[in-house]
Amino acid sequence: MASDSLSITDNRTGKTYEVPIKYGTFPLYGASIRGADLKNIKVSEEDFGLMSFDPSFLNSASCQSAITFIDGERGILRYRGYPIEQLAEQSNYLEVAYLLLHGALPNKAQYDAWVHDITYHTIVHENMKEVFHGFHYDAHPMPMLISTLAALSTFYPASRNVMDEGVRMLQIYRLLGKVITLAAMAYRHTQGLPYVMPDNDLSYVGNFMNMLWRKAECRYNPNPVLERALDVLFILHADHEQNCSTNAMRVVASSQSDPYCSAAAAAAALYGPLHGGANEAVLTMLRQIGSKDKVPQFIKDVKDRKALLMGFGHRVYKNYDPRAKVIKRLADEVFDVTGKNPLIELAVELERIALQDDFFVSRKLFPNVDFYSGIIYEAMGMPSEYFTVVFAVPRMAGWLAQWQEMILDTEQKIARPRQVYTGVAIRDYEPIEKRSAK
Ligand code: SDX
Q: 379: Cβ below 6 Å to ligand 1?
């Protein structure tokens, strides 16, 4: 008779164990067994018991989560059950941030209060200017953002009281409000420009644009097409379930470190070129290729393992990243205002050739969120080293939603994985004069 369990026979002992199978919302995508149940499988009482060995967590669920669902085979992404395509079309970033953090779309009163509470916290302490002043003139903006996120912790020591709901919400308002200010300050520092105060009469994205690009004008008026395009990009980047940087947020916060230092750790993970740093790496790659006639040689280099096709491939998506589809469509709207970024033609040709080549098709390598986003950011006037900062800003909502879910999850404890030890069993200390020359 069928039952939701595994019958495991340990051939070392002949014993059989019944291990229950758990399911999430979608049984085809959430069937799991508890790793801890494997510990009962032993060869003797002294035996520690079986562990599951899963380097880089290729097939291990670290948590139960109700925030974001991805169906990698079908290229599906939903925030709290809402398809990303609908949110990108009809919502805005702050409303999506509310959805991620509260689990439902806000009504008008909830939305207005949410926008007010975040907008109220866009200003940072004047001393943060001294922190930025300490960076070299050509410092990369991502380490500046990472450092200043952690530096915020020094102004809010009470934020360590993470089990208090009111304390958590206040830090959530502060981090969502201040991340655009810190990000803009990092950009202004690299440009040698004075910092711009927030203009809280603008939208969240409009305020970010104001702090990035205002010059001598009395008031910055964001171009509405670019403001909406950036808002959609923020929606697309807001969360992505248990990606590397979200895992970092959860792991660091599991020790009850404060959300500023945890967010800094998450941003540090995002910085890597295999993760959020890929959008910058795509532009570098496109520039190195240079022209369409060089694409076949580059594709050959990738197949010879001399290069990665940055912006392609994904741990979960084995189909076209639904975000990349929206971003590709968004490019034309942006180019109508900024003028076409010539690199788009090269990127489209690279995608066309790659998707016809069995090396990529057989490995189910498709464009991901980073393949086209940098081309848009560059068209908007951002330098490529700034692209990952523009990824980190909206991802703050996802990091905070995942952080709060972890804090409230009674099953979660401090993250402390086990290991399979393969080192020397034991040996005695030798005085240096007795050690061999080798
Ligand atoms: C993000 O996790 C998330 O959700 C992340 C993210 C989010 O929103 O948070 O979606 C954002 O990080 C998107 C990914 C951005 N990174 C890149 O574009 C960098 C290029 N991509 C690869 O480095 C790679 O595809 C990863 C890191 C994204 C995924 O790597 P995996 O899951 O570890 O896959 P793998 O390296 O085991 O690759 C499987 C095969 C290998 O070939 P074989 O050795 O088996 O023959 O595919 C090959 C890889 O060599 N491969 C690539 C490739 N990606 C994978 N070959 C060439 N170019 C690539 N980009």
A: no
Sequence-ordered list of residues with C-beta below 8 angstroms from that of 13, at least 6 positions apart, any chain: 43
Q: 152: domain range?
A: 82-235+259-269
pLDDT digit string (tens) for 349-395?
999 999 999 999 999 999 999 999 999 999 999 999 999 999 999 99
Neighbours of 420 (CB within 10 A): 7
Q: Is the CB of 275 under 6 A from ligand 1?
A: yes
Is the distance from the beta carbon of residue 180 to the nearest atom of ligand 1 less than 6 Å? Answer: no
Does pLDDT of 1 surpass 80? no
Distance 367 CA to ligand 1 centre (A): 10
At 128-142, the pLDDT tens digits run: 999 999 999 999 999
Which DSSP symbol is given to 305? T
In the structure encoding, which two tokens stand for residue 58, read together?
Answer: 């290729």
In this structure, the answer to whether residues 195 and 95 fall within a common structural domain is yes
Q: In this structure, what CATH number is given to the domain that contains residue 175?
A: 1.10.580.10
**How many degrees, rounded to 5, is the angle at CA 192 between CA 190 and CA 196?**
95
What is the pTM (predicted TM-score) of this model?
A: 0.96
Non-local CB neighbours of 26 within 8 Å, separated by 6+ positions:
69, 71
Residue nearest to atom 19 of ligand 1 (CA): 274
Angstrom distance (rounded) from CA 113 to CA 179: 19
| Spacing, Cα 10 to ligand 1 middle (Å) | 35
